[in-house]
Structure formats: C-alpha cells, structure tokens
Design goal:
Layout lengths: L1 H15 L2 H23 L11 H32 L2 H5 L5 H30 L7 H25 L3 H17 L12 H7 L3 H14 L6 H25 L6
Helix pairs in contact: 1-5, 2-3, 2-5, 3-5, 3-6, 3-7, 3-9, 5-6, 5-10, 6-9, 6-10, 9-10
Length: about 250
C-alpha cells in the first residue's frame, strides 16, 4: 500500500499547498451568498416552521461548497496531470487502477470536508444552527463528495483542455447544484417542476444533509441516502472502468 499512500499524500499536498485558493477562497465566496440572502430574504421567507430562512439556507450552502470542491479537486488534478504530462509517472507505477481511483476520491472528500467544515464553523460564530442528527450529515457529506469526486475523475479524463472542463462544470454541475433545493424547498415549486426535480441526484444530497440539521426533509432520508449511494456506486464503477481502459490516458 506504499504506492497508494504516496499518491494520496501527493493529492493532499496538491490542494493544501495552495490552500488560500482551494480552501479559503471557496469558504469566502460561499459566505458571501449567505450574507446577501441574510440581508435580503431572512425577514420575508420561511420554509420550515420556526426556522429562519438563513438557518434553512446554511446546510444547503455547506453541502453546495462540499460537492463543488470535491468535483473541482479530482477534475483539476486529473486534467493538470494530463496537460503537464506527469500523469505518465502515475500510469507507469505499479499502482492498480483502483488504487489510483481511491487516492483521487479520498483527496476530494478531504477537500470537500475542509471547505464545508470551514463554512459551517464560520456560520456557527454568527448563527445558532441546530445539528440534531450529526451521523446523517456525515453520511451524506461523505457520499456526496465521493460521488462528485468520481464524476470529477471522469470529467478530468474526458476533457482535453480547461475550456472543456469549465463547460462541464458550468453546464452540468452548476445547474444541477442550483436546482437541487439549496435555496428553496421543492414543495414551493409547481407540480411539474417538483416532478422534474426528483430526477436530479443533487436534490437528494442536499435534502438528506439538511435532514441531519433539522430532522425535517422534503424526501425520506432513507430514500435519499439509497439514491445517493446507488449513484455513487454507479459513477465510481464507470470511473474505474474508464481508468482501466486507458481512455485518453494510455491511448
């Protein structure tokens, strides 16, 4: 396992050495969302009974930061290694494709947890945020960041330049995130859009994570966790298969 831990350590150092950009900057940008919505909507919107809108919003913003940074970590690491050419040192090592995959995923989970934890801790300084079921929040944050990390591996392998990776993030990841109930409850939507929202896997991550804070959710947390887990397994198997095939890596 020496090779696996060496690659994992390298992936940790890759984002930790530029922590101002990879950790602090996402925390600040997420808190700006919170500041704007707090001043504009807190006194006018109530989603859950006796829960201020800002308090409702914080778990969604935390999870949004987690999944976006988990995706960014794996995808940027993969495409940078491809463009700079140092991916060859990973491919020539006696590491299996599963070891390579899990090193990228664990690093993505770590970055997601650091950013999400930073947002939560700063928000906790100013707001009284309940956390009724911490185990649920931990399960969803790990599965969500693992799913986005696996998706990031696929996107990083598929993209041949940064423009393609940016398009993947701007036209797939970002819309799915913003339409997943981060800023609203799906029960506030018309019936057609409620039905359509149920096909968005990000909805189940956000809603299940929020359940851990309030003990209230739009969808059964057991169903949400089952769907997120199934999606994570499916995307992970696809990512491992792509690594195994050498698509755009060895050929």
């Amino acid at each position: 396992m020496t090779g696996f831990f060496t690659l994992l350590h390298k992936e940790f150092l890759r984002f930790w050495k530029v922590g101002f950009q990879t950790i602090l900057a996402p925390i600040v940008s997420t808190l700006l969302y919170l500041l704007v919505f707090f001043h504009v909507l807190d006194a006018h919107v109530e989603v859950y009974p006796n829960v201020a809108y800002t308090i409702f919003l914080i778990p969604g913003l935390v999870m949004m930061a987690v999944i976006q940074n988990a995706f960014a970590n794996a995808s940027s690491s993969m495409i940078q290694s491809k463009i700079s050419g140092n991916i060859v040192f990973v491919l020539l090592s006696p590491l299996s494709y599963r070891e390579i995959f899990f090193a990228y995923i664990l690093a993505s989970i770590a970055r997601g947890l650091l950013v999400g934890g930073g947002v939560y801790l700063v928000a906790l300084m100013f707001f009284d945020i309940p956390l009724k079921l911490p185990l649920w929040t931990l399960l969803f944050v790990i599965m969500g960041s693992a799913l986005l990390g696996a998706l990031g591996v696929i996107a990083g392998i598929w993209a041949e330049k940064f423009d393609q990776l940016a398009a993947f993030q701007n036209f797939i990841i970002m819309p799915l995130t913003f339409l997943s109930g981060v800023f609203y409850s799906i029960h506030s939507l018309p019936s057609f859009w409620q039905t359509l929202s149920h096909f968005n896997p990000f909805l189940y991550m956000i809603d299940g994570f929020r359940y851990g804070f309030f003990g209230v959710s739009d969808i059964s947390p057991y169903m949400s966790f089952a769907i997120v887990t199934a999606c994570c397994i499916a995307v992970s198997m696809l990512a491992i298969q792509v690594l195994k095939s050498g698509y755009k890596l060895r050929h």
